Every structure is written in C-alpha cells, then in structure tokens.
Amino acid sequence: GQEAETRGVFRAAGLPETGYQGLVDGGDNIKEATWESVSMMLQLGGTVIGSARCQDFRTREGRLKAARNLVKRGITNLCVIGGDGSLTGADTFRAEWSSLLAELLKTGGITADEAKKSSYLNIVGMVGSIDNDFCGTDMTIGTDSALHRIMEIVDAITTTAQSHQRTFVLEVMGRHCGYLALITSLACGADWVFIPESPPEDDWEDHLCRRLTETRLGGSRLNIIIVAEGAIDKQGKPITSDDIKNLVVKRLGYDTRVTILGHVQRGGTPSAFDRVLGSRMGVEAVMALLEATPETPACVVSLSGNQAVRLPLMECVQVTKDVTTAMNERRFDDALKLREILRGNQRQHQQLRHPRADHHRGLRGERGGGGPGLGGSSWRPCPQFWLPPPPHPPFPKAFTGSLEMMEGRAKFEELCIPLCVIPATVSNNVPGSDFSIGADTALNTITTTCDRIKQSAAGTKRRVFIIETMGGYCGYLATLAGLAGGADAAYIYEEHFSIRDLQINVEHLTEKMKTTVKRGLVLRGCSPPLRTRLSPPCPVTRCRFSPQGGTPTPFDRNFGTKMGAKAVAWITGKIKECSRHGRIFANTADSACLLGMRKRSLVFQPVTELKEQTDFEHRIPKEQWWLKLRPILKILAKYNIELDTSEKAHLEHVRQKRISLESNI
User: Which residue ranges does the record assign to the Phosphofructokinase domain (predicted)?
Assistant: First the structure.
C-alpha cells in the first residue's frame, strides 16, 4: 500500500519543464519523476524543472488547457514552488477547478469518468526565493545559498580592502526586500546598511560619514557599506551605490570602490541548509497533499524557527501584498511589522551599530580583531577547570564547567555571579538547543566533500564511498550530511543496527548498482564499528576527515551574533537584578542558564534543569529533534520503510504566528 501510495505522490509531483507553461502545453513537458531521473539533482543550483513567466496561465483559456492535461494524466495534487505570483495563480486555478471540469466535460475535452476521478484539486505551496520576501516563513528555499555566494565575495573583498585601506560599497539583490543586505551586514560586521523597508533619517549623509570616520580612528583599515538594490530614502528617492560612493569620496576623500554582485547570487551549489530545508518542506508538502480534502484550504509550508508549519496560502499572499502597499504609501514602520523576521534582525543591527559602544565590537566582528569572519575561537578553552573534576566523561566544557560552578557556589562566594552558556560545538550535542554555533559550518564542509566524491565517481562504475564524520556518540553530522549529500545510509550510535541491517543495506546497494546509478555513498559517525563487504565484489573507498576549521557560514555568523547579543542583554539584566549595596550575589538556579534554540524561539534554561536531560556517559542529550529526519533519508534512498506521521503540522494563521513570535523575542 505504501509503495503504491508513494508512486502516486511522485506521479502527482510530475516534472513540468517550464512551470505553468508546461501544464498548459502538456505533452512531453509533463514527466513522471523516478529515483534515477532525480539522482545527482540535490547539488544543482537553480531549478531543474525550469521556470518561466507564463502569460497563457493568466487567461482562463490557458488554465482550461492545463486542467485538461492534468485530468488526462490523473493528476489531482499540485505542489507549487515559487513566490506570491505563482501561489496566487495556484489558488485561482483551484478555485476554478470545478467550473473548468464542467466546461471540459461539456465540450468533450474529458469524459465523465475522468471528471469523476479528478473531482477536486489539492494545492500546497512551497516558497522558493533568494530574497526571503514572502511573509509567513522565516526562511525561503534559496536564501541561505544566496547568502553563501554573497559572503564568499565579501570575505574576498575584505582582504584587498584591508590591504589598501579602502571603502567598499557592495550592492546585493533585494528590490523590495532588504533581508539579504541586512543579514550580510550582520554577518560581516558592516559599518552601514541600506534597505528599502527602513529608509535612513533625512540627515543620513552626516551620520554615515561620522560613523566611517570613527571606525577609521578606532584602528580599522577599511569600511564596508551594504546596499540593497531597492534602497530608498524617506521620500521614496532611490539611494544608489554610486550616490554613496560619491558622498564618501567628496566628504572624506577615502578610496572608495563599488561592487554590484548581480545574478551571481542566484547561482552556485545549494548550501546544506537549503538542501535539508527543501527536503523537509517537500516531505511536509507531500503529507499535506495526502491529508487534504475538498474542504481543506490551500496551504503553504513554512519554516518557523526550527519547525515546519502550514499556513493558509492566501493569508500569506495577502500579508506579502500588504507590505508592498505599506511601502508604496511610505508607512515603513508598518512594513517592518508585517515582515517580522526582518524586524527582529533590524533591531539587532541597530543595537550593534551604536557608534560609541566599544564593548559591542566583539559581537559586531570589527575587522582586524576577529569576529564572525574567522573560524574557530579566538578564546582558547582552559584544558582543566580549576574546580575538582566531575565524575562524568568529558562533555562540552562550557556546559560541564557551568554545572561545576553551580556546585562550587556553596563553597566559593566568588562564583555567585550570573552565568550564561552559549552552545558552540560542531557535534551539536549540547542539551537544551536544537543548534550549536559551528555545526552548520561543519555540515557544509562535509556536504561539499560528499559532492566532490560523488563527482569523482562519475567516471567509475560500481564504487561505494564510506565517509566517517566527527561527532563522537552524536550522529547529527552524519545524519544531516547524509540528507544533504544524498547518501544511501548513515550509521550512528543513537540508532542501533545489527548484522541483518547491514546485510539489507548491502543488498540495497547491490541492487542499485544494477541501475544507471552505479555508485554508493555511506556516512558513519566515529563511534560504532563498521565493516562492509559487497557481494558481488564492489570497490569500497573509505574517507576520514575533520570538519573543523574553515570560514564560518552565514548561518553560523548570524546565529552567533544573535546569541551573543541576547546573552549580553540577559547578563546585563541579571547584574542589575542581583546587585545589592554595590556587590553582585546571584545564587538562584535561574542565574545560571543556557541560551538555546528550541523549536520556534531562543530561550534561557537553567543548567541544573538540563542536567536531567543529559546522557553524560555518551555526551548527548536524551532527546534529539533531528532523529525524526532519519526516515526521510531512507525514503529518499529508496528504502521501503514507514514514516512516522503522528506529529503533524496543523494549519495555523499568519496573525497568530506573528503574535507567538513577538512574545518569544
């Protein structure tokens, strides 16, 4: 039953070559997806199925042709990937479906039996846009990859700008949305950013020049200004890169250059985050289609924090259009409120941009002093904590150190101070947080290696690669890299396996070698032992490497900046709260917390409470959210397994989601 059901889903998710135009034209433009046809697709940028602005679909005649082509193929489920225009067209198509079938039946375009089998059309949307300009989701598919392209160029420009003491003005995409510009500014510690939703004050020229001057006087050898292509002032007049360059040269005499990134932001290999996001959203979209009824409203699958949610499609479209209306009417505060994810980042940027806040420089990442552009840590961890050693094996030092300090408060009054732990480990094994700083960078390093290995196997046949990752007893890196890299299997400590399981996997790889895809990719964490032999004989290549080091990803830079700023604000509040007669005394449980991402929000949790949620022997949390993604990895590798659907994403509303988010900021 499941095999037939899955086949039906893939048939419903056929591959039209040019978006809606493929539906209208029909014929060979609608193809059935198979595992072999989508092999090696994961690491390709852009859209393999093609995309085009379709004027025909805007007319009823065009939609009538599209309906006939779908009915003839028995397709009653559509997953539409695009922006507000594509999703609006999908909703119109669904609303007209009954009348379109009636017209086709009347003219003899379809039979009565075909009309009965295709009596209703299910629609689910997924947002694909590098601008992240769709309201209702924290991140659209493609945005993180675009940020990767931008940050690669920013890092390259920073080195030459620092050498020659130059000012660089970088223009990034964002005609109507400044998300890319704002996140780039946070990730690289830029001196100024211009975005369309938040025009600068009328005397911005004076403020900008003063800021650049103070930065130079503070010892920086360069200045970086980020500009969204749609940047405007409060009167709606465009602020261009050349305008800013001419201002800096005329008033300050700095050697200033302009770099316009253009369409380079749209290309390249997708990031690990986008690959996992696309897979997770794709699975949620399929589940939404399978659960849909004629009464179910069309929904869009969105990301809220680290959780997949379903929102009414037209509610999201309407809020997105409301943003455009607010900006056209110069109600910029309202536009920011409607784009809640942008408003939170804007508030963060304003806090870190204060011209005289020298203590913020470490968070901002001022050039020449470390910051988000450098990998690793500029602070060396102490090899041995000066308190008596704990009875447990080593764990992330900040977490165990905080527990030891809590125990030491009874003996040492000097330890009665506010304490905040920020998770930072490539293994992502700190309890109390879905993500740790550094894990995304490590994941991208492994994914890039998987891509190169798969590419090297293109010239050979019947070869299996086994890649061993770091992580200790935590299988996060092996699992997520397997999902992002298109692996056939990922062996981890948390999911125990037997000789029989290994035999099934080997037989699966053997059958795979009989198809046109004659290669295999297996990942394993570094804890469980593994010996592999394929029969008939097949070459096996083992690769072992460390994902540590390298340039931090945009996600890690932004995540680290937010966590650091939030931790400093929390500690500042605790100091005021615990100050008595000129001294600080903090000995309550809530004065020593871990700041972590939990589903939809950043939360402070007492470390003593997290102690009960920790498996100290194996240095992992007792519950880990990503284990629910492992069935997806196996399904995409064509294993016939069942997917746990007990935890469903229920339909929410955009307004309720916004209120929930604001209460968590």
Answer: 17-288, 404-571
